[in-house]
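Hi everyone, sorry if this is the wrong subforum. Our group has a chain we'd like a structural model of before ordering constructs, and none of us has done structure prediction before. Sequence below.
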Amino acid sequence: MRTPLVAANWKMNKTVEEARALVYAMSARLREIKGVEKVLCPPYLSLLAVHAQLEGSDLGLGAQNMYWEEKGAYTGEVSPLMVKELCQYVILGHSERRAYFGETDETVNKKIRAAQKFDITPIFCVGETLEQYESKQTAQVVDRQMRLGLAGIDPAFASRVIVAYEPVWAIGTGKASSSENANEVVGKVIRGALSAMFGGEAAQAIRVLYGGSVTGANGAEFFGQSEIDGALVGGASLKPDDFIAITQAAAG
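Answer:
Right subforum, don't worry. Here is the predicted structure as tokens:
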């Protein structure tokens, strides 16, 4: 059985004080929810403050991105060593990083390799744009992202990778994919690629999340699907009641 996981991607929202307040508003209730892993991913500047708040709890902490080099003259970047000091997880390959900051399958792969080297669990994002979806290229695009993004990854580490299927056309739009469509992409395309790369047993063990306009109202619909193991939550993760409802739905 795959343990469900729900991750909160706060994106570029919340000052340090606001981040503290948001954690305070929901951490006690999140701790009461069992049977699901919970991860908060605030902006870099809030990681230290949130880390202190989560100490001693079962809530995980993740960064929203990192560079692949250990250190050096890379102004504005954050290294795996810096992430590892505070976090257990890191989001890599998010569609916003690909669309706005020029990330490619190859650079995402470098970051995942760095996560492997420094023992950080990646939440690896894949998904097609609206144009690709409408032209029926979903399988081709997602399969390519999977195979290039995870190229050269050790099978022992691959079992720890968390994949997040996020159709780009559903992120922040309020237009979620149908649960049946998402389940089919996860089951056939994502697990198909994982099986080809790491074997059938590993493909069934790796957790795959759905992301894209997940809410407390529709979360249970996605989590009821056989291939979906949780969610990477954007806007709703900034609202304590909504994020708690999503987490409860994932716990079953």
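For your construct planning: The chain is about 45% helix and 15% strand. The first strand starts at residue 5 and ends at 9.
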